[in-house]
Design brief:
Order of helices and strands: HEHEHEEHHHHH
Distance between the termini: 48 Å
Helix content: 40-55%
Structural class: alpha/beta
Shape: globular
Number of strands: 4
Largest sheet: 4 strands, mixed
Strand order of the largest sheet: 1-2-3-4
Oligomer: single chain
Strand content: 15-25%
Number of helices: 8
């Protein structure tokens, strides 16, 4: 059978709450099943945890699944890229090392964003919020934006990202 006919609806780029998605792996499987998606991949930022969590939840009736990951990368000129990888075998090669390195950069960038908000705007979050943020698998812009909204600095996540997190001044902060 032609693969394209077999898989009429596919989505090979989605994120769970393991990175910056809004749905847990269980919620994603439910939603994609309801949407009639036949083949999917979870490509969380700098994490392969979803590739282990999702198969535990799948049933015989579930859509087909391909392990995925989205690597956050920068080149020597500090240009940002996202590279998607699929079908990896974590037992072969060093994907866990690459993901761990990306995770380390992500954690440093989260700390830099929090420092930037304090230095640039005088925004300080309660220690309990910061501990919760840093305990996440892969904290990022949406998580910080939710904190800005919760503490009344922005009316919604889009405003928080646009007016505080994606400011040109922060883009000049290089994290290595």
């Amino acid at each position: 059978m032609n693969v394209l006919k077999q898989y009429r609806k596919i989505d090979l780029h989605m994120h769970t709450t393991i990175s910056d998605g809004t749905d847990t792996p269980e919620e994603i499987i439910k939603k994609i099943s309801e949407a009639g998606i036949c083949l999917f991949s979870v490509t969380d930022h700098d994490s392969i945890k979803g590739g282990f969590e999702v198969p535990k939840i799948l049933t015989e009736e579930s859509p087909s699944f391909i392990r995925g990951v989205e690597f956050s990368c920068r080149d020597e000129d500090n240009n940002k890229y996202h590279v998607l990888g699929y079908g990896y075998d974590h037992l072969i090669g060093n994907i866990e090392e690459v993901v761990a390195k990306g995770h380390g950069f992500r954690m440093k960038k989260t700390e830099a964003r929090i420092s930037f908000l304090k230095e640039e705007f005088g925004i300080e979050f309660p220690e309990s919020d910061l501990e919760d943020l840093m305990s996440l698998d892969n904290p990022g812009k949406p998580h910080i934006a939710k904190m800005l909204v919760r503490h009344g600095y922005a009316k919604d996540i889009n405003q928080a990202i646009k007016e505080f997190i994606d400011k040109k001044r922060f883009k000049n902060v290089y994290v290595h």
